[in-house]
Write a structure and sequence with these properties.
245 residues, alpha/beta, Uracil-DNA Glycosylase, subunit E, six-stranded mixed sheet, 39% helix
C-alpha cells in the first residue's frame, strides 16, 4: 500500500474508532463520567468517546497502553493527555527524542511525537481502569488494523501486562505468527516475534510512579532500548524482564 492510501485508511480508522459503541458498559461509563465530571474540571467539556491513537504515521515505535483515563484521555480526547500518567510518559519520551515537548495537557497543545505512535489496547475509559476480557477482544481489531497501517513499526513498547498480552495477540492476528509459550511480562522484558520486537515496561500509573516501582530512569531506559531496536536491521534475541508485574 502506498503512503497516501495508508494515511487515508488511518484517518478512516480513527473516525471509526471515535464512533464505536460496541461495549455497552464502557459506553455508559465514559458518558456518565463526561456528564458528572470532577470538581477540578467542572468547567470543561469532556470528550466522552473512544480515544484513537495518535502520533507519527511513519513511526518505527508503537507505544501500547491499557485504556484512556476517565479524567485524562476521556476528557481531552487524546490518549495519555491531561493526567499524571501522561505527564510521566511524555517527559520520558521527550528525553528519548520521541516527542517534541515533555508535556501533553490538551489535544491542541502542540505536542508532536517523533518516530513513535501511541495507542491503547482498549479505547474507552473503563470503570476502575479494568476492562473485561470481552471488551478487550472487541477492541483488539482496531489495534490490529492500526499496526497494519503503520507499516514502518518494528518495535512495540507495552505499558503493563495487559498491553503486553495485547501486543502479542495483535502481532499474531496480523502475521499469523505467535510467541508460544507467551513470554513472561516484566519491566525491560524483550522478545522478538514475526519481525517485531516487543519490549515491556511497567505502566506509568500513579500507583507505580508514586511508589517508585517505575522511575524516570527506568522508563527512559526502556524507550532508549526501543530506539536502538528500531534502528537495527534484525531483531534481538529474547531476554527476561526484571520481574513479573
Amino acid at each position: 500500500m502506498d503512503r497516501a492510501a495508508a494515511l487515508a485508511e488511518l484517518t478512516e480508522l480513527t473516525a471509526e474508532i471515535v464512533a464505536c459503541r460496541r461495549c455497552p458498559r464502557l459506553v455508559a461509563w465514559r458518558e456518565l463520567v463526561a456528564r458528572e465530571k470532577v470538581a477540578r474540571f467542572r468547567e470543561e467539556t469532556y470528550w466522552g468517546r473512544p480515544v484513537p491513537g495518535f502520533g507519527d504515521p511513519d513511526a518505527r515505535i508503537l507505544v501500547v497502553g491499557l485504556a484512556p483515563a476517565a479524567h485524562g484521555g476521556n476528557r481531552t480526547g487524546r490518549v495519555f493527555t491531561g493526567d499524571a500518567s501522561g505527564d510521566f510518559l511524555f517527559a520520558a519520551m521527550h528525553a528519548a527524542g520521541l516527542a517534541n515537548q515533555p508535556t501533553g495537557r490538551r489535544a491542541d497543545d502542540g505536542l508532536a511525537l517523533i518516530d513513535s505512535y501511541i495507542a491503547a489496547a482498549v479505547r474507552c475509559a473503563p470503570p476502575a481502569n479494568k476492562p473485561t476480557p470481552d471488551e478487550r477482544d472487541r477492541c483488539e481489531p482496531y489495534l490490529v488494523r492500526e499496526l497494519g497501517l503503520l507499516e514502518r513499526v518494528r518495535v512495540l513498547v507495552a505499558l503493563g501486562s495487559i498491553a503486553w498480552e495485547s501486543s502479542f495477540r495483535t502481532i499474531a492476528a496480523l502475521t499469523g505468527e505467535d510467541a508460544r509459550p507467551r513470554p513472561r511480562f516484566g519491566h525491560g522484558a524483550t522478545t522478538p516475534v514475526a519481525g517485531f520486537t516487543v519490549i515491556g515496561s511497567y505502566h506509568p500509573s500513579q500507583q507505580n510512579t508514586f511508589t517508585g516501582r517505575l522511575t524516570q530512569p527506568m522508563l527512559r531506559a526502556v524507550l532508549a532500548a526501543a530506539v536502538d531496536a528500531a534502528s537495527q536491521p534484525t531483531t534481538a534475541q529474547p531476554t527476561g524482564g526484571r520481574d513479573h508485574g
